[in-house]
Amino acid sequence: MNHSDDPPRPSRRRLLAGAAGLAAAGVVGRARANDANLPPNVASWSKTLGDGVGVRPYGKPSPFEKDVVRRDVQWLTASRESSVSFTPLHDLDGIITPNGLCFERHHGGITEIDPHDYRLMLHGLVDKPLIFTLEDLKRLPRVNRIYFLECAANSGMEWRGAQLNGCQYTHGMIHCVMYTGVPLKLLLEQAGLKTNAKWLHVEGGDSSGMNRSLPLHKALDDCMIAYRQNGEMLRPEQGYPVRLVVPGWEGNIWIKWLRRIKVGDEPWYTREETSKYTDLLENGKARKFTFEMDAKSVITSPSPQVPVKGKGFLVISGLAWSGRGKVTRVDVSLDGGRNWRTAKIDGPVLDKSCVRFYAETEWNGQELLLQSRAMDDTGYVQPTKDDLRKIRGVNSIYHNNGIQTWAVKPNGEVENVEVG
Amino acid sequence: MNHSDDPPRPSRRRLLAGAAGLAAAGVVGRARANDANLPPNVASWSKTLGDGVGVRPYGKPSPFEKDVVRRDVQWLTASRESSVSFTPLHDLDGIITPNGLCFERHHGGITEIDPHDYRLMLHGLVDKPLIFTLEDLKRLPRVNRIYFLECAANSGMEWRGAQLNGCQYTHGMIHCVMYTGVPLKLLLEQAGLKTNAKWLHVEGGDSSGMNRSLPLHKALDDCMIAYRQNGEMLRPEQGYPVRLVVPGWEGNIWIKWLRRIKVGDEPWYTREETSKYTDLLENGKARKFTFEMDAKSVITSPSPQVPVKGKGFLVISGLAWSGRGKVTRVDVSLDGGRNWRTAKIDGPVLDKSCVRFYAETEWNGQELLLQSRAMDDTGYVQPTKDDLRKIRGVNSIYHNNGIQTWAVKPNGEVENVEVG
């Protein structure tokens, strides 16, 4: 590994190469601009009153941002029984995902639950079985935490080689919001655990009855019964009114429309942890209960959906996360992993949350092979795809956290590629 | 001041008084519930496939949350020339405001700017005047920060006494999101400041041409040229595509639809900092350039719009913030300020950001006079309304950070009141 702690910095002179002097304003974008709106003219929108009488009860994005949307891959899953849409990571920055753009994964469509009829059952190996209404849950002590949620199948189509052209599709089954909810530990304490309690069976109220086995130690550690995301109530597609939050673990176990928690002494071996959400190895055996999402990262810009627009100063931007704890460092390579530089992590660095990283460079039309590599506070380093395949083979769908490569072409276009 | 560091805690037995045993499920909410959906029955929504074929490009809140909206006060401002809508603080938790619910304040309606035609001019006492397109700005190094934005007129209707019944109206001109943008310092360095540069004139592209004078030291400290909020591009009503972020300072100077920055050697004394956004004192003199938002807090639940539903364990929840830095402590009183207990601050504590606080109690139908009091890391303590009036009089509209009082009645209803 060739690691440079002192990457070349762009000259300050070139930093603003894109910005023009007053006399030659607006070179970038000129082709599409309306001259009448440009300096020294006063723009049309400054001459007339804007919209906005009274109240706009709930705001929407600008019509000019109509392409910043969740998207699906038609051939992958597009039925009411199994559907998925991907977060437009390439069109976002920072670490918070706006609620309207959080990816979706449904196994029985989006369930609509009347909050007055919502109930959460807690039973099994407990002293006192309980049923909670939504109002009951909202009256309890609560906590607020920013966590990433990644589907175990994120990047799952890339096991056998570069396939989908855009980080929205290769890495878009992740989002990161602030959850508000009740610590699961609190509910379990109230019900009173029997001494032989070891596992929980958690079940959704959707038509698939999505259900998984959750080890008690995790439930007592940091799991939440969440009813809010980014301040407001959960969105319908995220499990309104209540979902389970299992920080750092695969999204499938973050049961949406949560209806039941049963305490037992061993795992249930449900369909979703035997036939699905296990990792088939080369020798035909399958890893099971691989809950934790390993450290991972992706460069979101430039990427296939956001090519490089013109030569000059370039900020490489991306996301990194680890289900094991905090991201401590992200490295970026411009040459497919031969040389690395340490990226700048900007903004809050929180446990089991996304971090935003940036690396600056000059781009003069040369071909680049962009990669990023995350490290976490356990010392874990994100592996190359090849190193991952040596251990895991290519039969798996889940838990692909290999290093992603984007090739930047001389014309600025970007492509999903594999390197040696 | 009688400060109790060891408030009485609710008994664990009573903590879940609202939760029923399996045999008597769902007492709370029963009146509105449909028995057919309640345990031991399988709910209707679990028996049929949910909605969700293909893609939902941009998600929306549940239809059951249709009352969680921004609202205006008709008699206050409801014209295209001057409009305002308030954040529903009583219906939120945590510290992040979802983009669709951030309060609005317009002086010339909501300006619609074609991002291709957008230009930012930077001129005056600089070596090299510059014009930036949106693409220019997006190519530059950027930072991500969670900041609160409070209108100087927030709580302005309360100077002469308790008036508006709901924290949405008394305190709802605040929101808190993650901004992404270019440090203003970077643009100023590129233009090159003349030695006599001291102030900036910042101007919006809206029809009111909103404009203010900004001291250079603040511009060089932490101001941002922001184009994103919570990851996605700014909402139209928040200044799409570019607004100024002036952390901790009154919202009026966070110029939306930012079109021009002129560097000068003294303030401009614009209408918005002479006739408006100055603080008229009892003696007829006015304080000017009172930029900083002092430490402040409000209990968001219970509050007039969210009464207490039934006796038993009660979590008092609220927001606190300070334009001077970090909130270090929040105290809560149940008896109108005679006795205080320290609230628990939960979630990230960031500079010039909101924090969420909680205090727990038992409510058995007794009358309460709820108050909260914020302290920041400069040692500043939020004053009572009366102490504030002694210094400021009641002629002002702006910068009212007095302690708010909610009276909880025996029937659980909550009212905005004044105490002693």
UniProtKB/TrEMBL annotation, chains A, B:
Listed GO MF terms: heme binding; molybdenum ion binding; molybdopterin cofactor binding; sulfite dehydrogenase activity; sulfite oxidase activity
UniProt domain Oxidoreductase molybdopterin-binding: residue ranges: 107-267
Record GO biological process: sulfur compound metabolic process
Pfam family membership, one: Mo-co_dimer
Source domain of life: Bacteria
Keyword annotations from UniProtKB, A to Z: Metal-binding, Molybdenum, Oxidoreductase
EC number in record: 1.8.2.1
Residues annotated as domain Moybdenum cofactor oxidoreductase dimerisation: 288-404
UniProt cofactor(s): Mo-molybdopterin
PANTHER family, per the entry: SULFITE OXIDASE, MITOCHONDRIAL (PTHR19372:SF7), SULFITE REDUCTASE (PTHR19372)
Protein name per its UniProtKB record: Sulfite dehydrogenase
Protein's gene: soxC
